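Let us practice reading a record.
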Amino acid sequence: MFGKVAADILGISDIGSVIKPQDYDKVDSDDYVMHEDNEKIYFLIKSKTDEYCFTNLALIHLDGTSAISKKRTLRRYSYGTYSISDVLLETAGTVDLDIEIKFTMGSAALSIDVHKKHIAEIKDLYKALIKISEITHENEAAMAYAKESLGLASSTLNRVVKHDIDTAGQFKEINQAAFDWLTGARKQYKIKDFGFVFEKYINQ
C-alpha cells in the first residue's frame, strides 16, 4: 500500500522519474543504503517497477516484476567490484516521451528509460558515469603497470642475488616488500568511493 501511495505522491509512471533529494526517504532503496558506513544517495531514478539508486559506493537496483507485485529483486553493484563502462545516452525524438541511459557494470548491461522532462538531470548523471568509467579505466591500466614493474624488479633481483646468504630471511623480506608494494598500489588505484565525482557533476 505504501508503495502505491509513494508512487502517487511522487508522480511515478512506467517511465522512470528522477527523484528529488527531499523525497529519498519515500523510496524503498533508502532502506538498503549503508548509512552506517557513510553511504549517501546522489541520484535516484524510480518507475512503478524499478528503482536505480546511485550512491557514492554503489548502484542499488530494486528490480520489480510488475507494478502490482510486491516482489523485488535487490542487486547491489559496488563500484570497487563492478567497473562502469559503455556509457550511452539516447535522447528523445520529437514524439518520444522517454530518454534512455545505458551502461555496463561488470558484465551486467543496464538500460534505464527516463521521462524526457528529466533530460537536464540525466545529462548530469551521464557526465558522472562517464567520468567514473574513465577514472576506473585509467586506474586499471596503472595497476597493471604497477604489477609489471614489480615483476621486472623481482626478476632483476633474482639475477643479482645468486649467493645463498640467509635465503629464508631474504625471501621473507622480498615477499613483504612485494606485498606492501601491491597493497599500496591497490589503495591508490582501486577507488571504492566516487562521492567526489557525483558532487562535481550532480546538482543537488
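A brief commentary: DSSP finds four helices and eight strands in the chain.
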